[in-house]
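Standup notes, protein team

Yesterday: finished cleaning the Geothermobacter ehrlichii set.
Today: MoxR-like ATPase structure.
Blockers: none.

Input for MoxR-like ATPase:
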Amino acid sequence: MPESAHARLSRDDDRIAELRQAFRPALEEAGRIVIGQEELFEGLLIGLLCEGHVLIEGAPGLAKTLAARTFARLLDLEFRRIQFTPDLLPSDLTGTPVYHPPSGEFRTRKGPIFTQILLADEINRAPAKVQAALLEAMEERQTTLGDETHPLPRPFMVLATQNPLEHEGTYPLPEAQLDRFFLKLTLGYPPRQAEQAMLDTHAGGAVEPPQPMLGRTILRQAQKAVTDIHLSQQLSAWLLDLIAATRAPADHGLNNLQPLIAHGVSPRGSLCLARAARARAFMRGRSYVVPDDILAMACPVLRHRLIPSYEAEAEGITCDDILRRILAAIDPP
């Protein structure tokens, strides 16, 4: 007798719940070290589960670097950090061929990009040539040194940070590169209770670094499980309606948004939102996507892909404001 849909769904739920349980100790340990930034760490995990890159925007002192380092250590992944500056060269990132006199040959000296988790600190301070080198690595999972192309380790994930408060000496990221970031996470100040916990926890100085808690086998299994999460046709149609409303708001009864949007979300945004919703369902221990998964991931996935008009910027209307209006106006199935 063929397996019923209900029995298959129950079996998938059990498998997802078991895999999700393996992540619990790592999440708890991350909360001990990076206090008050639970959503940031979950966002990083969702990005890794979907094999995407994450852009983190927040003021200095919000533990962006600590979160990235803790994240890599808990998952037992190789981590490197590079400080982006206006005088940075592509070779500082990718490496360079170096002449070896005894052999008369050029040998490759690999740069910090050859790692699994790369923290690109203050990414918007690097010039265009460095951005282009990073873009190749992000999109192709490879980098070119001289005449040779070298594959990057797997998994490979770029965690980039930028400071929204300071723009002097910065180079705004081009839309093509922004679109390659799977998520854009924005950080605010932690609540008072969390900040009090920081004072208590860090009274003795630096917190002891964590031990690895997740093996690469579990990570690969979780990445495979995310691709198997069920997204119904009804939710897919609703998701596409949300994306379409960023391109032609008037077609969805949102005439007041038309002058606020210069360019809508690309098809890559549709694909990324579906993948992120699946990953969030996994993080909740479900084998299927519900409307809340799409609602929760809409802003992190789409905020850097939607280009507001000059009118919106003049009125102080952000991409998040526009997206919230769309989400409120188009009801889920």
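Follow-up from PR in the comments: Residues 37-203+211-219 form a domain with the Rossmann fold fold (CATH 3.40.50.300).
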